[in-house]
Amino acid sequence: MQFLKPNSVTRIFRNFYNFHKKTTIFYSTKTKNDSNSNPKKLPPNIPDLREFLIVNRDLSLKSNKSAQINPDIPGYLEKSDFSGRDRKVFFEVYGCQMNVSDTEIVWAILKENQYQKCDDPKEADVILVITCAIREGAEQKIWHRLKHLNAMKTKRSKKKSPLQIAVLGCMAERLKTQLLEKDQWVDVVAGPDSYKDLPRLLSLTSHYGQSAVNVILSADETYADVMPVRLNTEAPTSFVSIMRGCDNMCTYCIVPFTRGRERSRPVDSILGEIKSLEKNGIKEVTLLGQNVNSYRDLSQSSELESENNLVPGFKTVYKPKIGGLRFGELLQQVAEAVPEVRIRFTSPHPKDFPDSVLEAIKNYPNICENIHIPAQSGNSNVLDRMRRGYTREAYIDLVKHIRSTLPNIALSSDFICGFCGETDAEFEDTITLIEQIKYNVAYVFAYSMREKTTAHRRFVDDVPQEVKIERVQRMMNAYRKGAAELHSRMVGQNQLILIEAKSKRSDAEWFGRNDANIKVIIKDCDLPVSSCGGEDKKPITSGDFIAVKIVDSNSQVLKGIPLHHTTIQKYHENFKTNRTSSSVK
Ligand code: SAH
Ligand code: SF4
Ligand code: F3S
Considering the domain boundaries, does residue 177 fall inside one? Predict the structure, then answer.
């Protein structure tokens, strides 16, 4: 999975930090379906149990317990009290694309409740930090940032314009009230399934000066009824979240604990959002989910109802999931609904690549020929300890099958080194896998032990840090070598790119991305409006589809000569691109 690049609002982290405190369990009053329809509404002004999730910070700190209920606080407010009264919010987003997509949901909810957005934390009344807990380094960086924000808050309180700090996302879910125990830095803690409750949580703290927490994970919240409001309105690309949660329980991973159980958003709501994005000029959508290809819309039946979708040689910790509209059918419906919008998806699990998904990629030119297929390790014993549900051989067989169906497919992967007990010989298998498969892109990580996971209970984090760092470097070198080779084979090819923005290096250049999601740099110029040539020319701009000829490459970037403006459908007609035959010379 791709992580955010550092800029003013996003950062990535590498260091380590340890938490030893136990998490606190809150009461959950959520029952199945209560987010969608609640037939028995409580009479007004009768607080439900969730209203009591106000944490009395003074009490909890004095008694050194994680959370306590203060019986003196009424704990409920009129709906009109939820108004942001034009207070300004600033978003700081960390972690993966799901957090970016969630931030757009949060912004939609707050905007609806009379909050304004600002681009400078100094101007903000509320700072929302959307956090990640995947590795300890990610959390340590967020703690540093919270310390800094707290200094801002202290300064502000002297000037009598209070600043509220809210911690959202996976670290909020993992640490729950532990986040409140640190010198009163944080006012609101909200887990990934409680964003609809944010206006209430924020107003509780502004009305009562108390910290408020909602970290209840839901079995069915998909935010299908919230139309996200985009944060970056300049970009021609957008994320669309289609499912949430993960049932896989890989032994190293915190995500099932921070994001909860798998659930899918109904297909109609997804199609509605994508069509509306298309109307607003979006040219590429990335379908998102922690296990995007495990998508299963249970509100729809399907012809493939009785089929188990699992790839041969792959197993899961849960019983086979039968029924519902699956990912292959969703891809097909999306591709048909918006033929001039490019479609990508992330992050998939290799077990859920049935032929219906490969067929959809083969048949629809607007679905990018690009698959993320996280291997994590190349050694079957390590994969077994990781509980990935496949062997090295099953993974290689799957890649062979994918490449025989789609010879031009670009592949990317995630790898972890230094997992508990990983020997030098076991690690060598990861290197040989990377060399054998050859990926266009790979994300490589040093293992970071997470509390609550099976690995934390059963295994020892015994690979020294310096060995992990050395192994990360070796994985990086191996993947770069393979990527350079794959990209050099693209030189001479005609490709379709979607222009994203001016190149960072020069105003006289644009960059776009090809199907493989690799950056292609081209010079700025006026281009023929179609492949027929002619006098009619127009300038290049963000969101244009351009046909290019690739002339240079390295492991990360390609250079191209721009040929002409085009559309997805015209390009594939003109160049008669055939996804079943290899374009590699
Ligand atoms: N659902 C996605 C994973 C999202 S996390 C998937 O299965 O692909 C993104 C990546 O972070 C994982 O693929 C894994 O490579 C890495 N990762 C997860 N837990 C980790 C840990 N404890 N230490 C180091 N890397 C980890
Ligand atoms: Fe984590 Fe495994 Fe689920 Fe991915 S599939 S989110 S790595 S538990
Ligand atoms: Fe991080 Fe949560 Fe994404 S732990 S990687 S923000 S799902």
Answer: yes
CA distances (Å), origin 466, targets 1, 5, 473: 24, 24, 11
Residues 49-102: tens digit of each pLDDT? 443 444 433 333 333 333 344 444 445 677 788 999 999 999 999 999 999 999
**pLDDT computed for residue 75 by the predictor:** 55
Phi-psi region for residue 543, left (φ > 0), alpha (ψ -120 to 50) or beta? Answer: left
Same domain, yes or no, for 274 and 197?
A: no
Separation of CA 130 and ligand 3 centre (Å): 10
Instruction: Based on the fold, state whether residues 324 and 427 are members of the same structural domain.
Output: no
Contact 347 CB / ligand 3 (< 6 Å): no
98 lines ligand 3 (CB under 6 A): yes
Predicted pLDDT at 582: 65
pLDDT for 447 equals 98
Token pair, residue 484, equals 């350079």
In a domain, 1, yes or no: no
CATH number at residue 140: 3.40.50.12160
Task: Give me the CATH number covering residue 281.
Answer: 3.30.750.210
CA-based nearest residue to 249, from 258, 241, 240, 239: 258
Please give the residue that has the higher pLDDT: either 25 or 360: 360
Which ligand approaches the C-alpha of residue 256 most closely? Answer: 2
Identify the nearest ligand to the CA of 443 by its number. Answer: 1
Q: Could you tell me the CATH number of the domain that includes residue 532?
A: 2.40.50.140
How distant, in Å, are the alpha carbons of 357, 367, 392 from that of 309? 10, 20, 20
End of a domain among 487, 508, 524? 487
User: Is residue 339 a contact partner of residue 275, using CB atoms and an 8 Å limit?
Assistant: no
pLDDT tens digits, one per residue of 337-356: 999 999 999 999 999 999 99
Q: Which domain holds residue 503?
A: 494-574
Position 61 scores a pLDDT of 36
| Per-residue pLDDT reduced to its tens digit, 206-216 | 888 889 999 99
Q: What is the pLDDT of residue 283?
A: 98
Judged against a pLDDT cut of 60, whether residue 35 lies above it is answered with no
Query: Ligand 1 site: residues with CB under 6 angstroms?
Result: 1, 134-135, 246, 252-253, 255, 290-291, 347, 349, 374, 376, 414, 416, 445, 447-448, 450
Sign of CA dihedral 390, 392, 396, 397: negative
Shortest-distance atom of ligand 1 to CA 450: 22
Domain count, the chain: 4
Residues 385 and 294 in one domain: no
Average pLDDT on 191-201 reads 96
CA 410 – CA 369 distance, rounded (Å): 6
